[in-house]
Design brief:
- Helices cover 77% and strands 0% of the residues.
- By secondary structure, it is mainly alpha-helical.
- The protein is flat and about 70 Å long.
- The chain contains 6 helices and no strands.
């Protein structure tokens, strides 16, 4: 690996940390009820699907945008998400791959590789 590549990766890490800190500062600026629900949503999403932590922090940034709008209009957080917060989360990731999807794909790939290898040996 070249020195230039290492410097670029290091800079990416630094930028990612700056972006994450700015993201979390936005969370801390929300009313308390919004912060509580955001943290639970974040935990839920981290458990069920890969969440992009770069490029504006993806879906998490969108949630903060929505929460900031709700708070600014005087709505309670559950007026924004609905009472079933898990269903709200599932709605956010309907088109995203979950960890189960990724695992199933890897199992299929491994089975296909093993089958091809076995078939090649019999030829």
């Amino acid at each position: 690996m070249r020195i230039q590549d290492i410097k670029m990766k290091f800079q990416d890490i630094i930028e990612g940390k700056k972006e994450w800190r700015a993201h979390m500062a936005r969370v801390k600026a929300l009313p308390q009820d919004y912060q509580i629900v955001y943290k639970e949503i974040q935990k839920y999403l981290f458990k069920v699907c890969p969440v992009e932590l770069t490029e504006g922090t993806g879906v998490l940034s969108g949630i903060i945008d929505l929460f900031e709008e709700g708070a600014a209009s005087g709505k309670g957080v559950l007026e924004v998400t609905g009472r079933d917060v898990a269903a709200f989360c599932d709605g956010l990731i309907t088109d995203s791959k979950t960890y189960i999807d990724i695992y199933q794909e890897s199992v299929d790939e491994e089975v296909n590789k093993a089958m091809k290898k076995a078939m090649d040996k019999t030829k």
